[in-house]
Structure formats: C-alpha cells, structure tokens
C-alpha cells in the first residue's frame, strides 16, 4: 500500500497537476494540505472521478486539509486538533482507513520569528504532541503525515547557516519535533535514508528547484505497528518540475499489508 502526503498549494488552481499525479502514481491514500478553498469549493467530483473517496476541512484563502482513499472507505474521526476550541484554522483531519488511523496535518509556519506567529506554532506543537502521545497509547496502527514546517536536522536544509533564525529551523521548533519523535514515532524517510540529502520543498525564487536548494519539511511519523510494515519511502521530485506545480513535491511511503 502506498500512502502519500502532498501540500498542493491551492487544490483548485493546481487541480490538473494533482489529477495527473494521481493518475500516474495511483497512491492508495493521500493526505493533502493547503487546499486554500472553502468547504463547498473542494473539487469533490473531480477527485471522485479519479477514483478517490475524500474527506476534507476547508478554509477560505488559507490552510485546509484533506484525506483521499482510492476505492476504500474513510471513517472520519476528527477534523481539528484538540486543546484549543478557539483555534479556527483548518490544519488537522483524521480518519480510519483499512484498519489504520491516518492523521493529516498542516503545521503553522511561524514566521516572522520571534513573534505571535512563532508562539502560535509552538502552542500548536504542544497540542499536537499531547494528541500524538494519546494516539500512541491506543496501541493501534497510526500514520501522522503532512507539512510539519520544520527541518529536523542540518541534513534537511540547503545551506542551514542561512536558516538559523527562521521559524522552520529555530532550535525550539526542532526540539518540539524531536520531542514528538522521542515519544516512540519513526521518521519514515530518515529510517530508510539516514544519510541521504532528500528535500520535499523548493521555493519558486532563485531557481531553487533547478539548483536543488530545498528543504525537507513534509514528514511521515509512524507508530510501531506501521514502522514494522515499512517497505519504502521517497519523494516524487519530478512533479515539482511540472508546469504550474506546487512548491512542494509529493512524499510517500509503502507499507506491507497487515498480517492476518
């Protein structure tokens, strides 16, 4: 089974790219971020015509997350991160698919830093850590996939010295990510490619994609049940080079079917 995460940077504006990628690679489950569309403007019919059931949490102009499943039922579990009833950002959605719990997230960017946006990001991280710990305690197969807006190590960023004050690379942000991993989650890409330079995002400016001046900010965190089934992980880097593509590339894992 192939599971992917993809920050589409506008689901309607990038719909031809998304549909082309779905047709080309046929992932079984897809987590999408940055829909940038209100709930009623999600392209449900086009996604269904491509063979996918979907749940989504939209928001006008900003944010927005969705989970797609190819020919499988999705049972929505939640569509917001617990811990702050006043947080109205559409940044988290969770579903049960084929015996797995899949959480799709779009973590706040946090810039400019320091400031209120970084403080919101760190609070979101705290809430996410609490929820992640609760999910681990359930002792069920869980995948937490999405745009985490953090480069965990210097290997995950081109010229790290230029990013030391950025909210995606500040020590307290990297520590917040590590705190979650240390609960018992597996960073899928790094498990299988511990020393390889792998990026999932390339800015539109300064020919970043052409120079491979990228960042690894899209991640899969796997509970032990899924970690034991992990077969492969990678990035569909070529999609970033397609016309009118997102500044992110789809990132994916392959897992074995559960033992009967």
TrEMBL record:
Entry note: cofactor: Probably binds two magnesium or manganese ions per subunit.
Endonuclease/exonuclease/phosphatase domain residues: 4-248
Active-site residues (renumbered): 106, 147, 248
Keywords annotated in UniProt: Hydrolase, Magnesium, Manganese, Metal-binding
Enzyme class (EC, first level): hydrolase
Cofactor(s) in the UniProt record: Mg(2+); Mn(2+)
EC number of the protein: 3.1.11.2
Protein family: Belongs to the DNA repair enzymes AP/ExoA family.
Protein name per UniProt: Exodeoxyribonuclease III
Annotated source species: Dyadobacter fanqingshengii
């Amino acid at each position: 089974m192939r599971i992917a995460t993809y920050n589409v940077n506008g689901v309607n504006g990038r719909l031809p790219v998304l549909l082309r990628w779905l047709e080309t690679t046929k992932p079984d489950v897809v987590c999408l971020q940055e829909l940038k569309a209100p709930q009623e403007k999600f392209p449900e019919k086009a996604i269904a015509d491509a063979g996918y059931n979907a749940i989504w949490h939209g928001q006008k102009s900003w944010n927005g997350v969705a989970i797609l499943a190819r020919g499988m039922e999705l049972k929505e579990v939640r569509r917001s991160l617990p811990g702050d009833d006043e947080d109205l950002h559409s940044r988290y959605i969770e579903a049960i698919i084929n015996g797995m719990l899949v959480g799709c997230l779009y973590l706040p960017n946090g810039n400019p830093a320091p400031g209120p946006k970084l403080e919101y990001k760190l609070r979101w991280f705290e809430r996410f850590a609490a929820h992640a710990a609760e999910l681990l305690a359930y002792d069920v197969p869980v995948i937490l996939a999405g745009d985490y807006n953090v480069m965990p190590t210097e290997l995950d960023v081109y010229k790290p010295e230029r990013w030391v004050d950025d909210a995606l690379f500040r020590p307290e942000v990297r520590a917040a990510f590590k705190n979650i991993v240390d609960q018992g989650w597996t960073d899928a890409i790094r498990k299988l490619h511990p020393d390889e330079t792998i990026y999932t995002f390339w800015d539109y400016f300064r020919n970043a994609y052409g120079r491979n001046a990228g960042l690894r900010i899209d991640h899969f965190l796997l509970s032990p049940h899924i970690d034991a089934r992990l077969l492969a992980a990678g990035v569909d880097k070529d999609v970033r080079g397609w016309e009118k593509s997102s500044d992110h590339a789809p990132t994916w894992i392959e897992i074995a079917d559960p033992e009967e």
